[in-house]
Structures are given as structure tokens and as C-alpha cells.
Amino acid sequence: MNLRTGNCLQANSWICGKFITTREHQLTAALQQHVVLTVESVLIALAISLPLAIAVRRSRHATGGLLGLATAIYAVPSLALFGVLVPITGLRPATVLVGLALYSLTILIRSVLTGLESVPPDVVEAARGMGMGRARLLLRVELPLALPSIFAGLRVATVSTVALATIGYLIGEGGLGNLIAEGLTNYFKAEVLTASVLCVALAVAFDVVLVGLQRAVTPWTRTRTRTRPERVVGRSS
Amino acid sequence: MKTVSDVVDWLSDADHWWGADGIAVRTAQHVELSAIALAIVLAVALPLALWLGHVKKGGFLAINITNVGRAVPTFALLTLLALTSVGIGDQTVILALVLFGIPPVLTSAYVGVREVDQQVVEAARGMGMTGFQQLRRVELPLAVPLVMDGVRLAAVQIVATMTIAALVAGPGLGRIISRGFATQDRPQLVSGALLVVVLALLVEGGLAWLRRVVDPVRRAYRASGDAGELPPGPTLGVADFVGGARDTTDTVS
Questions:
Q1: Which chain B residue lies closest to A179 (C-alpha atoms)?
Q2: Mind telling me how many Å the CA of A78 is from chain B's nearest CA?
Q3: Are A228 and B239 inside 8 Å of each other by CB?
Q4: What integer pLDDT is reported at residue A17 of this predicted model?
Q5: Is there a contact between B193 and A83 if contact means CB atoms under 8 Å apart?
């Protein structure tokens, strides 16, 4: 391996420091697009899933129907989901954003619902006894107690989205996926490996940030020995 | 909607169904390679997960392997495999499918066995059952719902990964979508996507149905005539897949 001499580019080595230094701007731009795409789609999904879950939670039929739909969408491979979205949103970056948000939505709707369900009935009773109205009960008691579950869903959704977003290269909106695709076309090993490693590192970084955020906003969970938050399942993309 | 009629036209063209790279051949490739990969996953991961769940060891590995699997983009792994000297062929595609299929089975089956009521296992031991008998006759039947969840998740994952394999010139139905993207042929792109959606939903629905059919607890209730009182079985959740979210202290022992 000619890591230091710069011949690693000619030799087409897997690991090549020269590639990173010469293509730094491109790497940063791809990373930035990847971060923006991930954050935007997860936030859109969160903004939709919270009110949606709160609206349907009292109705067993609506909850069951929504969860069934979420399971079905989740089973659809990302490539096919983007394909089905093309007639609606066109071959535009919006298709990637909508597709990614849909996947996160299927994960988050479940974790929000389970989180709200996990609030102990006697806690709700006590809050009502203190004279809390429905809005205050929701904001001050139910949502905070649902946070561990919501965060578990956010972690799965975010990490999945980082991986899924790579496919967005098909519409020129894949962040690091653009580099992987370019490396595939040019048979450029260092580009593919570097972008892949950055992708995994980004997923881990997001996860660490979310864990930190969760600890900051739910200080009570650190003192309690047993918490059993909700359950939803994730899949690699 | 013009696209709808174009898609109907594309799908009703017999040439698109039969032929060397028609829908029939692509579907057969997709199903065949997925089935082989699922069989390998079950042969490798299931015994390991059941045994780890029985001895209550290796929980950290069994649970975190899913997190690792989720963080690695299937497209990235397939591209890396495509650039090795072996290149993309049936074997390398199957290898990728297996790698992404193992985590859900390992995690679900492990959690399924570990979550079995320990009093029931104690009773089985008290009756003189050996470790293997406990696993075979007590823990496994009670873990069936979660084991089947793992099988379903792995199958869905494998079908999805198989679709992505087309992006690195692998076989399967994804080829119709990727060719549609490459040539900006929308009817072909959407038709291919719809075919994959149908396949994925058949796999998801079929295995969800199988889970209900093979669950011994549910069958016993049905046989005794009070299915109406069937308790809600165990379910999997994010907590089972996110490190630290679930109490895993019992894995230390």
C-alpha cells in the first residue's frame, strides 16, 4: 500500500489518504447533503407522527389501521418506494425526501403510540385530580413520560435514514450515496470505501447525539432502575 | 393520469413478461436467491440464537448486531463486494443477503427465548428435563411468535436487499426499476416498483399469517374453543433492538 506517496490513486487502493485530501470539498459537500436530508426527513416524520398518533390513540380501529398501513409501507423496499413515488412527486429531490420521511413515519408512529400507551393510568388519574385539563395533561405528563419510547423510535428512524438516503443518488440526491455510485461507475475503490465508512460513522454520530439528547431531556430515567420503553422493529435499508 | 395508463400498457405487454430478462425470469431469480439466503440465515442464526437465549449469554452481541446491520447501507456493502476481485455474481449477492438477514433472526429469537417465563422453565427443570429438552419442549414453543417475527423481518430485509442488488448489476426484479431509472423510462420504472411492492407485501403478509398458524399457544387455545380469551402474545419492539433501551442486566450472569 502506498499510503504516503500518493501512488495509491494510480494503484486504486481501498485506503487512500491522497483521495481524502484532494477531494475534501466534495466529501464535505456530500456529507452536508446527507446530514440535511436525514435531519429534514426525520423532523418532517416527527412533525406528522406526533399529532397523528395523538389523534388516533383513543380509537382502536384507527390505531390498528394506521399501524397496519405502517407495517405494509415498511415492508416495501426503498428502491420500489422511490419508484412508486415518481409519478406523484416526479424525478426530483422531493421524491427522496418524501420517501425517507415515509419510512421514518412508519417507525415513529409506532413508538409514539406505544409511548403514550405506556403512561401508567394512576399517573394520569393523579394529574386529573390535580385539575389538569387535557392539553396540559398531554404536554406536562403524557408526552414527557412517552419520551424514552419516542427517542428509541427516533434512534432507529435516524440510523435507518442515514443508510437509506444513499439510494437517493438515483435522483442525484443521495449525499454520500452519490460518491458510492460514482465510485462504482469509475471502479474507484477508495471513493466507495471512504464514502461507505463515512456513512456508518455518520449513523453512529447521530445515534450518540440522540442518546445524549435523550439523557438531557429525561433526567428522571437515570435514577430509575427499570424502565421498559416501547417496542418497534427496525430494518437495515 | 397518463402515467397510470402507460404503466398498464407496459405491464400488459407480453414481451415484458417472457424472454431472457422478462418479468418471469426476474421474479424467479428474486425468489430463488432470496429463498436460498433465508434458508442459510435460518440454518446459521436460529440454532445460535436459541442456544444463546437458553443459556442467557451473548445478549450484547445478539441485540447490537441489529444496530450494526441497520447502520450499514445495503447499497454500500453491495458496491464494495462488486469492486472486489470476485465481483457481483449469485454467490456474492447471496452473501450480502445472508449478512443482512442474520441480525433480525438472531435478535428476535434470542429475545424470544430469553423472555420465556422463568417459572415455567424452572418447572420443566423440576420435572427432570435436560437443558435441550427444556429448550425444545418449553422455551421454543413459547418463543415461536418472536422467532417468527425474526423470520418475517429477515425475509422482508432479504427481498429489499435483493432489490438493491440490481443497482450493482445483480439479478432480480430490481433490474426493471434500475433500468427504468437509468433510461428515464417512467412506465418501466413504476411497473418494476409495483411488482416489487406486490412481492414484498406477499412475503410480509404470508409470513404474518404463518406466524399465527404455527403459534402452538394460539393453536391450543383454538383447539380448546376459547380463542376469544387468547392473551396478547409477546411482541418485538425498538427496545429490543436499541442498545441500552432495554434492561439487559440478566445477560451479565
A1: B76
A2: 7
A3: yes
A4: 84
A5: yes
Instruction: Using the structure block, give the residue that is written with the C-alpha cell 475534501.
Output: A24
Q: What is the pTM of this model?
A: 0.88
pLDDT in tens, B34-70: 999 999 999 999 999 999 999 999 888 888 888 889 9
The string over A43-79, giving b where at least 16 C-beta atoms fall within 10 Å of a residue's C-beta and e elsewhere, is ebbbebbbebbeebbeeeeebeebbeebbeebbbbbb
On the CB side of B85, CA atoms within 13 Å amount to: 1
Out of A78, A110, A196, the one facing B76 most closely (by C-beta) is A196
Residue among A84, A155, A233 whose CB faces B153 most closely:
A233
Q: Is domain B2-221 classified as CATH 1.10.510.10?
A: no
Interface ipTM above 0.85: yes
DSSP letters for A101-147:
HHHHHHHHHHHHHHHHHTS-HHHHHHHHHTT--HHHIIIIIIHHHHH
Q: How far is A148 from chain B (nearest CA, A)?
A: 8
In angstroms, the CA B125 to CA A140 distance is 48
Query: Do A235 and A76 contact (CB within 8 A), yes or no?
Result: no
Residues of chain A with C-beta less than 8 angstroms from the C-beta of B241: 156, 233-234
| CB pair distance less than 8 Å for A72 and B204 | yes
Structural domains of chain A sorted by starting position, each given as residue range(s) with its CATH number in brackets: 23-222 (1.10.3720.10)
Supply the mean pLDDT for chain A.
89
Q: Which residues of chain B are within 8 Å of residue A196 when distances are taken between CB atoms?
A: 72-73, 76-77, 79-80
Closest partner residue to A237 (CB to CB) among B74, B104, B238 is B74
Considering only CB atoms, which chain A residues are within 8 Å of B107?
A: none
CA distance B55 to chain A (A): 22
Our CA angle for A36, A14, A188, nearest 5°, is: 70
Q: Where are the beta strands (DSSP E) in B34-189?
A: none
Nearest C-alpha neighbor of B113 from the set B50, B55, B71:
B50
Residue B242 has pLDDT above 50, yes or no: yes
Which grid coordinates are listed for B124?
420443566
HSE (side-chain half, CA atoms, 13 Å) at B5: 2
Other CB atoms within 10 Å distance of the CB of residue B216: 12
The residue to which cell 383447539 is assigned: B223
